[in-house]
Amino acid sequence: MKYAELNLDARLQNAIDQLGYAEATPIQEQAIPHIIIGKDISGLAQTGTGKTAAFLIPLIERILKSETDPTNERAFSDWKPFQCVLILVPTRELADQIHENVEKLTLGCGLKSYPFYGGTGYEKQKEALKNGLHFIVSTPGRLMDLYKEHHVDFKKVRAVVFDEADRMFDMGFKDDMKYILSRIERTRQFLVFSATLNFDVLNTAYQFGAEPVEINISRDQAKADNVKDALFHIGNNEKPQHLISLMKRENP
Fold first, then answer.
1. Strand order in 135-138's β-sheet?
2. CA 217, 5, 136, 68 torsion: positive or negative?
3. pTM for the structure as a whole
4. What are phi and psi of 161, to 5 degrees?
5. For residues 114 and 133, what is the distance between their CA atoms, to the nearest angstrom?
6. What φ, ψ does residue 6 adopt, rounded to 5°?
7. How far apart are CA 34 and CA 40, in angstroms?
8. Which pLDDT tens digits describe the chain residue by residue (252 residues)?
9. Which of 45, 61, 197, 232 is close enough to 51 for a disulfide, judged by CB 3.0 to 4.6 Å?
10. Which helix (H) or strand (E) holds 42?
11. What is the 3-state secondary structure (H, E, C) of 211-248?
12. Please, which residues have CB within 8 angstroms of residue 195's CB and are 6 or more apart in sequence?
């Protein structure tokens, strides 16, 4: 499937063209047609398969349609200012990565995104929320802090994405995820992506009223064929030296 066939908003299509995306990857081809009309998704896809664009592109399209053509089948019904899409991730690195992807895909669209995670000051994050955002990209811990201080209104969330949900469960965020889901309106769109088959994740989706279309392109592998990894058994004090050596060798 080519992106040009999707009849996307011209601003979004232009951003996609600028990024050099022409042909959809398998996860994109299977997920986008469902997400773009508001269906829930449970997607099993490895790292490196393009799953970030698989949920960002249709969600951006839905927001743009909501603002310019609210009767369109792709639009969120009765979209209002300060409503948003919430994307929950396990790490600050992934929050930054997805936020950067949102910025690239919304170039010229007027949509706003901001990443939220611990280890940084609250003030800029509070200011971003005060001004209104279309995309909140956050780790669970910082989001809970901001909610408890009344800076985030979960009732404004129209779609929620759990990316790398299996990792979030492994890292002990299961209770946080359930807490957040219990405070978001059940009419929201629910998208969950994992690299490994995790029945606990799927059960959580069903527990909170999601009716996901299940997509599995992982073939029980946690990463794409073109991604290589390696494990080094080294002492704690050796880590910095080893990392620098690897960086010099690979010259990334």
1. 113-116, 135-138, 84-88, 157-162, 189-194, 41-44, 213-216
2. negative
3. 0.86
4. -120, 125
5. 7
6. -85, -10
7. 8
8. 999 999 999 999 999 999 999 999 999 999 999 999 999 999 888 778 889 999 999 999 999 999 999 999 999 999 999 999 999 999 999 999 999 999 999 999 999 999 999 988 889 999 999 999 999 999 999 999 999 999 999 999 999 999 998 899 889 998 999 999 999 999 999 999 988 867 788 888 888 888 889 898 865 555 556 777 788 888 888 888 888 888 888 888
9. 45
10. strand 41-44
11. CCEEEECCCCCCECCCCCCCCCCCCHHHHHHHHHHHHH
12. 44, 45, 46, 47, 164, 166, 167, 218, 222, 223
Q: Which two tokens stand for residue 39?
A: 């269906």
Q: How many residues does the structure list for the chain?
A: 252
Instruction: Enter the tokens of residue 168.
Output: 């979030």
- Six token digits for residue 155: 């009732």
Structure tokens at 215: 């997509």
Q: What are phi and psi of 179, to 5 degrees?
A: -60, -45
Q: Locate 11 and state its tokens.
A: 């601003």
